[in-house]
Design brief:
The protein is mainly beta. About 0% of the residues lie in helices and about 50% in strands. It has strands at about 1-5, 10-15, 20-25, 30-40, 45-50, 55-60, 65-70, 80, 90-100, 115, 120-125. The strands form two sheets. Strands 2, 4, 5, 6, 9, 10 and 11 form a seven-stranded mixed β-sheet that branches. The chain is globular, with a radius of gyration of 14 Å. The mean pLDDT is about 95.
Length: about 120
């Protein structure tokens, strides 16, 4: 069983930066797909960025060029570097993990075996 815990959220002004971390504990498989999701009040949860065990990454169009997902290896924290933040980035951010053998859509929250409790990011204009 894998437990995930996010940290690094906070309040920043537009144009600022934050780095989120997701730390895994428990039995950690060597091949995981790790993904950041976010959810704003009244909106559906959306995939932000994902990284596979091969280090291949995919980003939502809304964050391309501003956010960077990274992880050195499955036993090290997962990061989300967020630059040039905008008020519309305000949301609860969650990390999630699933075996990398899963080849369905990375955007589907319920398809992830392991999910964190979230960290709040607030961007003011």
């Amino acid at each position: 069983q894998v437990q995930l815990m996010e940290s690094g959220g906070g309040s920043v002004q537009a144009g600022g930066s934050l780095r989120l971390s997701c730390t895994a504990s428990g039995y950690i498989p060597t091949t995981l797909r790790m993904t950041w999701f976010r959810q704003s009040p009244g909106k559906d949860r959306e995939g932000v960025a994902t990284i596979r065990s091969t280090a291949a990454t995919t980003y939502a169009d809304s964050v391309k060029g501003r956010f960077t997902i990274s992880q050195d290896n499955p036993k090290n924290p997962l990061y989300l570097q967020m630059n040039d933040l905008k008020p519309e980035d305000t949301a609860m951010y969650y990390c999630a993990a699933t075996p990398d053998s899963y080849d369905g859509s990375w955007l589907t929250w319920l398809n992830y075996n392991y999910r964190g409790q979230g960290t709040q990011v607030t961007v003011s204009s």
